[in-house]
Amino acid sequence: MSNTIENLKWRYATKKFDSSKTIPDEDFETLKKAMQLTASSYGLQPYKILNIVDKETRTKLRAASWNQSQIEDASHMIVLANFTDFGDELVDDYFENVIDTRDLKKEDIADYANSIKSTIGQLSQEQKAVWTAKQAYIVLGNLLSAAAQLKIDACPMEGFASDQYNEILNLNSKNLNAAVVITLGYRSEEDATQHYKKVRKSEKQLFTNI
């Protein structure tokens, strides 16, 4: 547990990456697995995880990100894109996986599946988009923690024009929206931010026993 806390103290929102350093494939596969295993409501994972590898695309995205250098300089760039709307197919796809993985019959899970459909089916399109974006942010938290364990630097980024991202990445046609961006790699020695003391609320301010 002490290593976990020390790693979380070590991490910070990296402002300048060393563009000469690349995350080893083995470590990136670990980060992918951490994202895949992230908890989500009902286990539905109502989002897509985009690994932006094309350099030309990253150049375009940098322009849509207030010209922040992390977009191009980081080893890897992840865009978490949430579904903006969905129907019963989201639940059906999940339970097809459940049936296959757990060797069940459709009738074994029918009542539970219908219960989920009834619950989330009542949401408006706007409420669905808000809910799915919240699910994507759970992935973000898990990824930041996993990266810290591997001593991989990361920068969660909301400073971008989502409408431009959606156009560049052709997300609108896929019923997706760019919710949040995470750049990953290794900090540059020139990044002064790494030397700042971490500022957080005290436990007394933050926690309440009820």
TrEMBL record:
All residue ranges annotated as the Nitroreductase domain in the record: 8-186
Keywords linked to the UniProt accession: Flavoprotein, FMN, NADP, Oxidoreductase
Cited CDD domains: NfsB-like
Source taxon at top rank: Bacteria
Cofactor(s) of this protein: FMN
Matches recorded under Pfam families: Nitroreductase
Family: Belongs to the nitroreductase family.
Protein name (Swiss-Prot/TrEMBL): NAD(P)H-dependent oxidoreductase
Species name: Winogradskyella marincola
The organism's taxonomic lineage, starting at the top: Bacteria, Pseudomonadati, Bacteroidota, Flavobacteriia, Flavobacteriales
